[in-house]
Amino acid sequence: MAEFAEGSNASFSKTITDADVVLFAGVSGDTNPLHLDAEYAAKSRFKQRIAHGMLSASLISTVLGTKLPGPGAIYMGQTLEFKGPVFLGDTVTASATITSWDGGKGPMTIATSCHNQRGEVVVTGEARVLYRP
Amino acid sequence: MAEFAEGSNASFSKTITDADVVLFAGVSGDTNPLHLDAEYAAKSRFKQRIAHGMLSASLISTVLGTKLPGPGAIYMGQTLEFKGPVFLGDTVTASATITSWDGGKGPMTIATSCHNQRGEVVVTGEARVLYRP
Amino acid sequence: MAEFAEGSNASFSKTITDADVVLFAGVSGDTNPLHLDAEYAAKSRFKQRIAHGMLSASLISTVLGTKLPGPGAIYMGQTLEFKGPVFLGDTVTASATITSWDGGKGPMTIATSCHNQRGEVVVTGEARVLYRP
Amino acid sequence: MAEFAEGSNASFSKTITDADVVLFAGVSGDTNPLHLDAEYAAKSRFKQRIAHGMLSASLISTVLGTKLPGPGAIYMGQTLEFKGPVFLGDTVTASATITSWDGGKGPMTIATSCHNQRGEVVVTGEARVLYRP
């Protein structure tokens, strides 16, 4: 019997800190001042530094790669809609729910989203994953 | 006169190393053994550790956030198709080309892709970006 | 025609945070308690932890290596005068202006300085750079 | 009796790895491809990626801030001559020798240099430090 089925869900939460943003800048090379320069960010629409959108999106990869379906997952595709900013100190929860899967060799379609500690959705999208445990 | 127009393009290249993968695992929490466990990875279809797909995708964010259009970019959405593995030591080039833009307040549609040092495409997709410099 | 000339200038700004100081300590090995120990620092002339002077100086390298002249820069020398402390949370802007250059194979002399968000100069000095794009 | 005098010396050694370079890029924002892009670096005069010059220079700060004179050091100035490249995996030793000091409130003049594991000098220069232990 399959360990997962349509409707199975999982989530992963992480507080996004300044350290995450500095390290993400180093790993990605993305030094956009909105992420690194408090003076620039204060004048932006966000009024303060925000985390890289892809950093939040990476938490989706974490759910898929460690929980649903976890090891054996082969990431085929992902759509992402960035819905709102993540500020330093926010806790982001990435959630994933299987919406379509034949239970075998076919791709899983997985609804994915991220929200912050106030319940505000910051990222939505859909993943396609093969499962070869 | 707009600094960018349909057809404008830019790229960013970075060698993806073990340090990147370790730091990305730390920042994202994605501890899938395919990225961190050489013994596990040796038995996988890839025969060796591979970088997180989202790490390559993050280089797309770098092009958008630092070059095209750079500061002033507001990331609205991104589609991603993961086409092939990135091994540790591979150099990934993320490229972006504006495919549709009204030159003003409307969203830019940007064709995005990543390829490795052998010219093999590893990620494709499309970004939507607002530009508010 | 040269892209740069005497008088050309560029800058790079970054908020210096605790994460930067911790990581800089790890990379450099400089564990002086003035940077890492709030109790020690509270009794110092600065009354609080300060960033490593070389961390601010590193932003000068960033301007030279990414903007003026950017890739193709070969860093020959740098003088540094540390004029004042950088506290955690300060935003440091490193600025560079070409003061002497023959437009070709000769070394660029570049006036360099760093100031904080209150306009206070924290580092001054001069760089010598060869440009081989 | 002063703990230090003219002629006193100390050193600090560290192997410069890819992790150091990635972290230094994140902390400084210096994403020059000579440091991060193996394909670009292969075509450069150095034929491979090199560490940021300021990263080696930072080891001088480490000697001053932790050993000679150590806590109580106030960094006033530094001259730097970059004499040769540091490759990933090289072990850099930063050395410092007091060349002039009144033994009290006056500034220490300290000869500083960095060499690699083959004895090749990669950085030279002079530091000025006040000592207020």
In whole angstroms, how far apart are the ends of chain A? 14 Å
**CATH homologous superfamily name of the domain at 9-16 and 53-130 in chain A?**
Hotdog Thioesterase
Low-confidence stretches of chain A: none
What is the N-to-C succession of helices and strands of chain A?
Answer: EHHHHEEEE
Briefly note the structural class of the backbone of chain A.
alpha+beta
Mean pLDDT of chain A: 96
CATH level-1 class of the domain at 9-16 and 53-130 in chain A: Alpha Beta
- Number of contiguous helices of chain A: 4
Overall 3D form of chain A: elongated
User: Biggest sheet of chain A, in brief?
Assistant: 5 strands, antiparallel
Amount of beta strand of chain A: 25-35%
Largest sheet strand order of chain A: 1-3-4-5-2
Quick synopsis:
The structure is a homotetramer of 133-residue chains. With 133 residues, chain A is of the alpha+beta class.
What does this 3D model show about the protein?
- 4 copies of one chain form a homotetramer.
- A 5-stranded antiparallel sheet of chain A has the order 1-3-4-5-2, covered by helices on one side.
- The first copy, chain A, has helices at 18-28, 33-36, 38-42, 53-66, and strands at residues 9-15, 73-82, 91-100, 108-115, 121-131.
- Chain A has 133 residues and is an alpha+beta fold.
- The radius of gyration of chain A is 16 Å and the shape is elongated.
- Chain A contains 4 helices and 5 strands.
- Chain C binds chain D through residues 12, 14, 20, 23-24, 26-35, 40, 45, 52-55, 57-62, 65-66, 70-71, 73-82, 132, and chain D through 12, 14, 20, 23-24, 26-35, 40, 45, 52-55, 57-62, 65-66, 70-71, 73, 75-82, 132.
- β2 (73-82) of chain A pairs antiparallel with β2 (73-82) of chain B.
